Amino acid sequence: MTKKDDKLGSLKKARAALDIRHKRNSTDCSPHYLTFRHPQNLFEIDYPAHWKIEQEADGAVEFVAATPDAYIGLMLFRTPISIDTAIIEKSGKWEQIATAMFAKVESTNVRSDPTIIYSNFTADRPEPDQAGQRWFVLCSDLILGISSTCPEHLKETYVPLIERMLSSLRVHRDDELLAARILARVQVALKAQMPNGKVEVKGLNIVTDKFELSIGNILSQVKRNPAKFDEIVDHFIQGTIGLSQTDEELGQESWEAVRGRIQPLLKPDKYIQEVNQKTNRHKVGSAFLISAPWLADLRICFALDNKDTFRFINSLDMQRWNVSLEMLMQVSADNLSAYPEPELHVMKPNESLPGIAALIPSGGAASSYLLHPKLFQIAAQHLGREIVAAVPSRDALMLFEYRNEKETLQNAVAHDFATTNHPISDRLFRVTPDGIALL
Fold first, then answer.
1. Are 123 and 151 part of one and the same domain?
2. Domain boundary pick from 319, 338, 357
3. Positive or negative CA dihedral for 271, 276, 279, 280?
4. CATH number, domain with residue 40
5. 135, 169, 225, 411: which has the fewest C-beta neighbours closer than 10 Å?
6. Which of 338, 361, 381 is the last residue of a domain?
């Protein structure tokens, strides 16, 4: 066995041990989530770590809550319909088809569900005292059927957990086609900007004379929010063209040139894992993302602020600059603190309602200001001393005057988190004079 095998084995054991710990600590009141990947690559979905998984021979999968006195679960299965789903959408008959399928199982009140990012319809189950629903989801080359079971008297506890699961649903069957569409759009735009320069595609990377850039992050965003394909890709192209116009060679910047532009960025641990899983850390010249643990499942990454876009700092950058993680932490914190004080746009219709504020950054990303040492001092001027914050996406930091309405705030944040670009967290954070804590 090689050293590489030893390290990979150790990593797998550590991951398994962490999953076991999550299962032990997970409860319906405070769930930890793990990711289930369907063995036939139909979908991925996050589920409460302490729930049971039951897989059928036909590919159906059911997630079942650990409740002794009631049956609560979520089942996902492939419907026995073989048809090009693109034809269904173009025909304008998707709702008609879904309604006919719901009629066969006596489900009523057909409507779309924004919790799921793919084109879908949902309907209520016919059983009495039942808060469960059924869904049909149109995704690439299949129609996915989903069914939830939950007694009416337990819906306040379990429906939010089921909604959290549905918001994480991911279908990967068209990844290669989607990546090809993105790469083609970016390549055409760069060739128009650099007619005499090299613009090549290597895997998921765009390679030019000045830089090599991966579309992995953009691919993840488009998969999460396919309806915003044009908006996401056009924004990426704008930032990439900005890089092509600079005299600075990407990946070769000096420490002196970048020190004042390094910013902290919050990212979920899962994002870091997915990006780094695509990197062979044992291959000479491979670069992986640098990060430091923070709160809950969030980590602090580091990026160069290039005005139109951010470039993550990786292991090769650290080697070239000969700097430590502690140095990056200190420099990025100093740069964040050196910005002019950010603006707060406060909404408070009357004194009976709690104040809500959106932070407008004076530089960097809005969510990064959750790490600002003076955030409490800035927010307390407008919202008092009981303050809760949320960072559903990279470009959003919301602050609330807290009056114990946790469930209402949590539902609003979860919806934003499920539908935004650059998602960060669906958690709520308490802002205190001593720093940030989980609510």
1. yes
2. 338
3. negative
4. 3.40.1000.10
5. 411
6. 338
Tell me which residue has tokens 């919301």.
Answer: 398
Cα 149 to Cα 62, 162, 410: the distances in Å are 11, 10, 23
Reading the block at residue 148, the tokens are 């939830």
**303 shares a domain with 405:** no
Domain match, 317 and 387 both: no
Query: What pLDDT score does 207 carry?
Result: 81
The 10s digit of each residue's pLDDT in 199-232 is 888 877 788 877 777 777 777 777 767 777 888 8
Total tally of structural domains belonging to the chain: 4
Q: What gap in Å lies between CA 270 and CA 436, rounded to an integer?
A: 21
Q: 199-234 in b/e burial notation, b at 16+ Cβ within 10 A?
A: beeeebebebebbebbbebbbbbbbbbbebbeebbe
pLDDT, average across residues 112-118: 91
pTM over 0.70: no
Q: Is 46 left (phi over 0), alpha (psi -120 to 50) or beta?
A: beta
Mean pLDDT on 129-147: 89
Q: C-alpha angle with apex 231: 235 to 93, nearest 5 degrees? A: 160
Contact 179, 215 (CB under 8 A): yes
